[in-house]
Amino acid sequence: MHGYELRKRLNLMLGWSRVLSYGSLYPALKKMLRSSLIEEVDTVPAPVTRRPRIVYRVTEAGHAEFERLMSEVGPAAWEDDNFDIRFAFFSSTDMEIRLRVLEGRRTRLQERLERVQTDLARTQKEVDRYAAELQRHGVESVEREVRWLSDLIKAERDGHSKAGPVTEPVTPD
Q1: Per the CB 3.0–4.6 Å rule, which of 12, 75, 78, 164 could disulfide with 104?
Q2: Contact, 3 vs 29, CB < 8 A?
Q3: pTM of the full structure
Q4: CATH architecture of 3-68
């Protein structure tokens, strides 16, 4: 697909919290072209006032690199900058790898939560109510993500491949 369509789809997939800019997309596409991970396959005519759109396709080397990246399970896989992207492509990942990434992310967030709660206890008297509310919001957000990750891990271990809490189908009486 061409860059505009690729950006639109990635932004839909990653959600509102992570928007991919053209300033990030096109340099990444150029780097992938130089590395032969993608190739230009066509141009789509555009109105006279715009440049034609270049259509890209993933090469065999690109597929192999994607598989390699998706099989990595070290700390980079569960850090804030990478986790959302990894999670968006979990359907292309082996269950054991998914579990290791989810557990790594949960552990990292639990460590962060302990640190933030300790800092909160020390600084509670020093901040005004708005700063305290912001801190409380941050703690609640991390606690919510830890619960979400725990639900995903349980679903994976129970043999469900769906993301999110698993619900039983409703059958009419």
Answers
A1: 78
A2: yes
A3: 0.75
A4: Orthogonal Bundle (1.10)
